[in-house]
């Protein structure tokens, strides 16, 4: 059932966040109010797989569920529905040792290094703590191990005694990467890891990601709203809108000829260096609240080509032999 | 848009320096910059963090607080000198002929007041009009920036708007008195791309219609490419290079501009290494004696490390500061 060489697969994964009615709400309900629990479908029935050494990108705008999906992949959130397989084994049913191999094997790098690095702990300790706890080296080798990691991510090993605030933004991003690499992962989940960096520093970190992929055969799940970065780095992309994957496939093919109107709109709206003094084509409206997503296809109120069927039915996912998928009535029999 | 001999610039900044006098020494946030903006023109002011682009905007608005001070230079708005004006005199300009839009609209909007209270106050600050007229003008500008049912939305609080809508309100407030110049400091950086496009389209239309000049401060070269007529690239408090967008982006003279363009991930080179600029932006308190970019520059020689380059003019009208400018044949891409 599992294709060989598959590192991670999520099957029919959904993640819902439920805000239950609090005490005041329950008392009000006794008096005749109508407070109900609110449910956010952050991720809605997603299938995705990552091969060793592959770069898979999750793209979409705020609230599309890309970060939540990333957290499910990295094992931080358990899915509400569906399964996550690590090297072919279901993580929900695996034993302790196998689960630990998964949690070490899939590491996450966060957007804001300042809020993910403890400001009171020295950089060397931040990087060295996890591998020491997991016994990845002998106690006497710790210094060499951490220094090696610092060199690998392009930091001066003499900086191990410094605190996070003594580094620049780009250097902090490198500490976050060194910390993730310290436990010898196979998969890095990067959640907007270069979004906060200046463009010259962003280029340095992107180059580092590519070098590490080559040296260590790392796979990446790259979460970003920046389609320029995604186009540069990814092999396959998954475009999300309000919790659902609406299009996926090899990135070159999607960038060349998107099939879903939302993907088309996203690509049209990306500012590009070679598009001068252009007129900006716009998608009408705003992203709806995930609390009350539109019926049928979530994109239909903003879609330029929507028909009556789009408001009625959720489009099925249409897969083609070239490895592409699009969930749009346009590719599955028309919008009327 | 083109500089015809008779048109007078809306904004003329000449040799402006804004320094901050801190305990650790003098920080030269803006150090001798000059540029002009013509009526209806969009100037992109591009730079990385700490390049002085926002401080330039604040200096023009007269919003520099101690320990910062404009130490030299002149800022003329339609010929009137702004440097040296006291706060009262400056208030006659701010909001009327000169307006600013900030990155975070919650900096502009008071969270505990309704939109109409805030907008009517802005109208009546410069015009003695009735509440009714002020309200009508507020609704009018809200409609201009594309807010649906502006009459009803006037009674809402800022938190009832989405991020993109809040930014539109901030832009609407800037437009109230039909200013000659709007300074926009990264107003779309925090927004999603589809919303960013909507705002860029609105700004483009509004400036073209009203002849308002726009200074667009951003770190994003791609946004500038799509929006601006001219671009000034800042590095460490100075303008490394300025000129027409096509000239600067297609044939950069300054090695920093060249490196910056190469750092933008794009369509040209999937999976290839990006042309990175080594090192990181210098701390403004401890700049090297010569050209501030010299330690990171692939072309730097001994002269670059010794003395700072002065402003030079290229045949196509660009101004740049570099001892070792890139020649046209070298930047063929």
Determine the number of helices of chain A (DSSP H or I, runs of at least 4 residues): 12
Q: Please give the most extensive interface between any two protein chains, plus how many residues each contributes.
A: A-B, 47 and 48 residues
Number of strands of chain B: 12
Please give the largest β-sheet of chain A.
8 strands, mixed
The percent range for strand residues of chain B is 15-25%
Largest sheet of chain B: 8 strands, mixed
Quaternary organisation of the protein chains: heterodimer
CATH evolutionary superfamily of chain A: P-loop containing nucleotide triphosphate hydrolases
Average residue pLDDT of chain A: 89
Tell me the radius of gyration of chain B. 21 Å
Whole-number tally of structural domains of chain A: 1
CATH architecture term of the largest domain in chain B: 3-Layer(aba) Sandwich
CATH architecture classification of chain A: 3-Layer(aba) Sandwich
For the terminal residues of chain A, how far apart are their CA atoms? Answer: 37 Å
CATH topology-level fold name of chain A: Rossmann fold
How would you portray this structure in words?
- The complex is a heterodimer of chains A (336) and B (333).
- Chain A contains 12 helices and 12 strands.
- Chain A is of the alpha/beta class and 336 residues long.
- Chain A has a single domain, classed as 3-Layer(aba) Sandwich (Rossmann fold).
- In chain A, the strands form 2 sheets. Chain A has an 8-stranded mixed β-sheet with strand order 6-7-8-3-9-10-12-11, with helices on both faces.
- In chain A, β4 and β5 form a beta hairpin.
- In chain A, α5 crosses α6.
- Helix content of chain B is 32%, strand content 22%.
- In chain B, strands 6-7-8-3-9-10-12-11 form an 8-stranded mixed β-sheet, with helices on both faces. In chain B, strands 2-1-4-5 form a 4-stranded antiparallel β-sheet.
- In chain B, α4 crosses α5.
- The radius of gyration of chain B is 21 Å and the shape is globular.
- The N terminus of chain B is likely disordered.
- Chains A and B meet through α7, α8, α9, α10 and α11 of A and α8, α9, α10 and α11 of B.
């Amino acid at each position: 059932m599992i294709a060989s060489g598959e590192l991670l697969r999520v099957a029919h994964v959904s993640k819902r966040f439920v805000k239950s009615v609090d005490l005041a709400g329950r008392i009000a309900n006794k008096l005749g109010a109508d407070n109900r629990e609110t449910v956010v479908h952050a991720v809605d029935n997603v299938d995705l797989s990552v091969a060793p050494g592959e770069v898979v990108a999750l793209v979409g705008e705020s609230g599309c569920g890309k970060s939540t999906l990333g957290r499910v992949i990295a094992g931080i959130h358990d899915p509400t529905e569906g399964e996550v397989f690590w090297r072919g084994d279901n993580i929900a049913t695996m034993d302790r040792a196998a689960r630990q191999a998964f949690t070490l094997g899939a590491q996450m790098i966060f957007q804001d290094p300042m809020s993910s690095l403890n400001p009171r702990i020295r950089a060397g300790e931040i990087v060295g703590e996890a591998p020491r706890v997991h016994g990845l080296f002998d106690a006497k080798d710790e210094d060499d191990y951490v220094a090696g990691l610092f060199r690998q991510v392009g930091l001066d090993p003499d900086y191990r005694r410094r605190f996070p605030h003594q580094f620049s933004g780009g250097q902090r991003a490198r500490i976050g990467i060194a910390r993730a690499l310290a436990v010898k992962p196979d998969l890095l989940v990067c959640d907007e890891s270069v979004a906060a960096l200046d463009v010259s520093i962003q280029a340095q970190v992107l180059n580092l990601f590519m070098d590490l992929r080559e040296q260590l055969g790392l796979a990446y799940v790259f979460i970003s709203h920046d389609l320029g970065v995604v186009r540069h780095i990814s092999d396959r992309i998954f475009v999300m809108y309000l919790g659902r994957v609406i299009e996926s496939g090899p990135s070159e093919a999607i960038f060349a000829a998107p099939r879903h109107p939302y993907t088309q709109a996203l690509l049209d709206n990306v500012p590009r260096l070679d598009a001068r003094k252009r007129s900006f084509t716009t998608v009408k409206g705003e992203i709806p609240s995930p609390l009350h997503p539109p019926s049928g296809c979530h994109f239909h109120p903003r879609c330029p080509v929507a028909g009556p069927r789009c408001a009625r039915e959720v489009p099925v996912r249409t897969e083609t032999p070239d490895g592409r998928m699009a969930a749009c009535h346009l590719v599955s029999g028309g919008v009327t | 848009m083109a500089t015809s001999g008779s048109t007078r610039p809306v904004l003329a900044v000449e040799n402006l320096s804004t320094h901050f006098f801190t305990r650790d020494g003098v920080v030269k946030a803006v150090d001798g910059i000059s540029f002009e903006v013509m009526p209806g023109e969009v100037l992109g002011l591009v730079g990385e963090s700490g390049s002085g682009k926002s401080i330039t905007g604040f200096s023009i608005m007269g919003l520099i607080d101690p320990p910062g001070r404009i130490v030299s230079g002149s800022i003329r708005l339609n010929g009137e000198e702004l440097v040296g004006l006291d706060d009262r005199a400056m208030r006659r300009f701010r909001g009327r002929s000169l307006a600013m839009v900030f990155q975070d609209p919650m900096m502009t909007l008071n969270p505990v007041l309704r939109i109409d209270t805030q907008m009517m106050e802005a109208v009546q600050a410069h015009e003695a009009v009735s509440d009714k007229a002020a309200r009508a003008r507020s609704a009018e500008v809200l409609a201009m920036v594309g807010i649906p049912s502006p009459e009803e939305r006037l009674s809402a609080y800022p938190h009832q708007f989405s991020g993109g809508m809040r930014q539109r309100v901030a832009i609407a407030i800037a437009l109230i008195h039909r200013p000659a110049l709007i300074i926009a400091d990264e107003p779309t950086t925090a927004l999603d791309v589809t919303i960013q496009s909507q705002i860029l389209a609105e700004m483009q239309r509004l400036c073209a219609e009203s002849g308002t000049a726009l200074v667009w401060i951003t770190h994003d070269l791609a946004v500038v490419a799509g929006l601006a007529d001219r671009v000034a690239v800042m590095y460490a408090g100075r303008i490394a290079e300025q000129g027409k967008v096509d000239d600067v982006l297609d044939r950069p003279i300054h090695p920093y501009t060249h490196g910056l363009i190469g750092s933008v991930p794009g369509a040209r080179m999937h999976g290839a290494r990006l042309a990175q600029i080594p090192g990181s932006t210098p701390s403004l308190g401890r700049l090297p004696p010569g050209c501030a970019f010299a330690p990171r520059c692939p072309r730097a020689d001994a002269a670059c490390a010794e003395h700072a380059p002065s402003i030079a003019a290229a045949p196509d009208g660009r101004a740049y500061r570099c001892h070792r400018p890139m020649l046209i044949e070298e930047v063929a891409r």
